[in-house]
Specification:
The complex is a heterodimer.
Chain A lengths: L1 H29 L12 E8 L5 E2 L5 E2 L8 E7 L6 H16 L6 E7 L7 H9 L6 E3 L3 H10 L4 E5 L7 E5 L3 E4 L4 E6 L5 H11 L1
Parallel strand pairs in A: 4-5, 5-6
Antiparallel strand pairs in A: 1-10, 2-3, 4-9, 7-8, 9-10
Helix pairs in contact in A: 2-5
Chain B lengths: L2 H30 L5 E8 L8 E9 L5 E8 L2 E16 L2 E10 L3 E3 L4 E4 L4 E8 L8 E8 L4 E7 L14 E5 L3
Antiparallel strand pairs in B: 1-2, 2-7, 2-8, 3-6, 3-9, 4-5, 4-8, 9-10, 10-11
Classes of the chains: A alpha+beta, B alpha+beta.
């Protein structure tokens, strides 16, 4: 009687250990991994850094702070409204990312920051953003407000004079999309050209 | 002494004949046009308000035996049209990822015989500088592209955001015309 019970207990213990081992194995194989060990379509910024604050004016005249966006991921792009090629292409991609995410898109803020504050205004940014999606943010700051933000994110901006351009120049600039996770950390950067569904796939794993 | 002027005259005639032959060849080239064997597909232009810049995209395929060299463009919708190329560079600087986007003016764009060249976002595009009117989805603009040999290709390009199924698979209405 006791012998059978001891044997049963021993069997149970072995079973628990086995389940434990299987579970540990599965966790190791399929459980969450550090970002750097996961396959993303964007460049992984590892270790994630706290995202530098923006503190700029949105198209409705409100101050946009990353600190107020906790719980949401932020897709961040720097450009200018008169940009003929890459900026509108990026915002079209963002609208496709948003569509691809479906209801999950509520957890993502799409943000466009001007690198040309002399020409762009919050009003112009509102008109611009509305061409793509009115839920996107278009941020403006005075040159003095913008300078530290551009430096923090390593954004290169160079005005190239061109007499044929309506404003007399075009702007060469960094065309990365930055991803800030719901904890306010800079985790990914997409080079221009990553397909919307691939950006959406990466975002799903972050939000 | 008398043979010299005669020789000069015959040289002149030969030169004149050569010039005539050259002119005839040029006329033929213009009539046939370097665009005779060229096909343009998937053309679209980005919507933007008057005064802003925009860009035209398309794929051009040269089915002919000779290269086609695009040298200029003009449109009814902007003050100026120029072929531009966006070039991206990604680099690590001081441990940070930096990507620069540079846009360059392209003086001439070669479409090699038997090959296609795609003008697409983030690469080659026909930049429209200073739109003379609002470009709204559903409208279209006319673009005339000139080749080095004087041939002109006229395109009717729909205004689109370039999303899949919107102008991507449609053939643009194109026809080759004579020089200016």
């Amino acid at each position: 009687m006791t012998r059978t019970r001891t044997r049963r207990l021993g069997f149970l213990a072995a079973l628990i250990v086995l389940i434990g081992l299987l579970g540990w194995g599965a966790w190791t194989l399929w459980g969450p991994k550090p970002l750097s060990q996961q396959a993303f379509h964007g460049f992984v910024l590892d270790p994630p850094q706290p995202a530098p604050e923006l503190g700029l004016i949105d198209q409705h005249g409100q101050t946009f702070r990353l600190a107020d966006q906790r719980g949401k991921a932020v897709m961040l792009f720097f450009g200018y409204t008169n940009c003929p090629d890459v900026c509108p292409a990026t915002l079209i991609y963002y609208s496709q990312v948003k569509r691809d995410l479906g209801p999950l898109a509520d957890k993502v803020r799409f943000v466009f920051v001007t690198v040309d504050p002399e020409y762009d205004t919050p009003e112009r940014l509102r008109e611009y953003v509305n061409r793509f999606d009115p839920s996107f943010y278009g941020l403006w700051g005075s040159p003095e407000q913008l300078a530290p933000v551009l430096a923090d994110y390593g954004i290169y901006v160079e005005k190239v004079p061109n007499e044929n351009s309506p404003v007399g120049y075009w702007v060469n600039h960094t065309a990365l999309s930055f991803v800030i996770d719901p904890r306010g950390r800079l985790v990914l950067a997409f080079p221009f050209g990553v397909e919307p569904q691939d950006m959406a796939a990466d975002l799903r794993r972050i939000i | 002494m008398g043979s010299m002027p005669r020789k000069a005259v015959s040289v002149k005639i030969a030169l004149a004949l050569a010039v005539l032959a050259g002119a005839a060849a040029l006329a033929w080239a213009q009539a046939g046009g370097s665009f005779e064997h060229v096909e343009v597909t998937g053309a679209w232009v980005r919507p933007a308000p008057a005064g802003d810049n925009s860009a035209v995209y398309f794929t051009i395929t040269n089915h002919g035996a000779a290269d086609v060299v695009l040298v200029a463009a003009e449109t009814d919708a902007a003050r100026m049209a120029e072929i531009h190329e966006t070039v991206m560079e990604v680099a690590m600087v001081d441990g940070r990822l930096v990507q620069n986007m540079q846009m360059h003016h392209v003086d001439s764009l070669v479409v090699p015989a038997g090959e296609s060249v795609s003008l697409k976002p983030g690469g080659l595009h026909l930049m429209l500088l200073g739109l003379t009117r609002d470009l709204e989805i559903g409208q279209s603009i006319t673009v005339r592209i000139s080749a080095a040999d004087g041939g002109v290709l006229e395109l009717v390009v729909p205004v689109s955001q370039g999303e899949p199924g919107e102008g991507h698979d449609d053939h643009a209405h194109a026809h080759a015309g004579h020089g200016h």
